[in-house]
Design a protein that fits this description.
- By secondary structure, the protein is an alpha+beta fold.
- It has one domain.
- It contains 2 helices and 5 strands; from the N terminus they run βααββββ.
- It has a 5-stranded mixed beta sheet with strand order 1-5-4-3-2.
- A hairpin with a 5-residue loop joins β3 and β4.
- The protein is globular.
Length: 86
């Protein structure tokens, strides 16, 4: 973890973020300034943060994380269901 990215990534999150071409700056921005926050349907310790990424055509990035210190990112993906609605 660096000062620029103070969050923990699971092995899965690191893999999918790299595979999907998601920049850590985008993940950090969504976590720090989400446009919408939702609880997970199954696990009360997991939160979903959503935010638009202007540099990627205003697509909505969903960052799923576990509440702990430091925050542990579980996954991230561009959520097509929120396109043009957030």
């Amino acid at each position: 973890m660096s000062a620029d990215f103070p969050y923990e990534l699971t092995v899965h999150a690191a893999h999918v973020i790299r595979e999907r071409g998601i920049l850590l700056d985008w993940v950090k921005r969504v976590l720090e300034e989400p446009e919408r926050v939702e609880p997970d349907r199954d696990d009360p310790e997991i939160i979903h943060a959503l935010g638009r990424v202007p540099e990627f055509g205003e697509r909505v990035l969903r960052v799923i994380y576990r509440r702990q210190e430091p925050l542990q990112i579980v996954s991230a993906y561009f959520d097509r269901r929120w396109r043009n609605t957030l």
